[in-house]
Amino acid sequence: YSILQDSSEKIKVGFLKSLDILFFINVPVVVMFVEAGHQIILTLLGEQWISIDPLLKLLVFAVSCNAISILTLPILNAVGKPKVQFRINTFQIMTLGITLALFMYFGGIQGAALAVLITSIAVSALSYWEIKKIFPLTLRETIKPIFIPLAASLIALVVGKFAITQLMPLSKPAFLLLVSILGIGYSMLVILA
User: Fold this and answer.
1) Which of 5, 139, 145, 164 has the most crowded Cβ, counting Cβ within 10 A?
2) Strand, helix or coil at 19?
3) Please, are residues 158 and 151 in contact by the beta-carbon 8 Å criterion?
4) Dihedral sign (CA 176, 169, 51, 114)
5) Sign of dihedral through CA atoms 17, 20, 24, 29?
6) What is the rounded average pLDDT of the residues 150-155?
7) Given CA atoms 30, 20, 150, 183 in this order, what sign does their dihedral have?
8) How far apart are CA 52 and CA 164, in angstroms?
């Protein structure tokens, strides 16, 4: 981005392409963990870990949300706005500290995960607000890259649910094979769209 710092339009195009890649990876991961987190935990970690399912779902979504702010920070540095990056980082630390203190007191470990999620959403919103000051960016342009991965993820989810109901019970290798096939199918849908 630093090479392009004088061209806000080129930075915008690079940012939107980065969002395409980000959503290509994040959307199916979030959909997969929200819908099949229980089975993934059973398959990969075993039954003794099943209690982390709700926690894992919150954290996967939080990490996905946080990725937007991670994309904006190099842009802020590249265009000579390290003070804005510092303000965002300070906001993140303060928000996380406050929400952790509140939510952990009332909700324990799940409260902590919820605090991380709330902080990720708030920091991403602030980062988006700050990046809009650098180049004109509509909400539609920002959300557009999510539609194809979301549609492809939902199609893969429906096919996967149908396959699971037909093949129940699934062994660990069969489940991993099914997830792999669905992943390849998802990639094909996104590429063809």
Assistant:
1) 145
2) helix
3) no
4) positive
5) positive
6) 89
7) negative
8) 22
CA dihedral 20, 26, 32, 38 (to 10 degrees): 180
Q: How far is it, in rounded angstroms, from Cα 91 to Cα 81?
A: 16
What per-residue string of b and e applies to 73-90 under the rule 16 or more CB within 10 Å gives b?
bebbebbebeebbeebee
Mean pLDDT rounded to a whole number for the chain? 87
DSSP state of 100: H
Length of the chain equals 193
CA proximity to 86, closest of 75, 73, 97 = 73
Q: Which residues contact 156 (CB under 8 A, 6 or more apart)?
A: 28, 31, 182, 183, 185, 186, 189
Indicate whether 7 pLDDT > 80.
no
Token pair of 5 as six digits: 């710092």
Other beta carbons within 10 Å of 134: 19
Q: Is the pLDDT of residue 48 over 90?
A: yes
What's the one-letter identity of residue 156?
A
What are 67-80's pLDDT values in tens digits?
A: 888 888 888 887 88
Question: What is the C-alpha to C-alpha distance for residues 24 and 21, in angstroms, rounded to an integer?
Answer: 5
Q: Which amino acid is at 119?
A: T
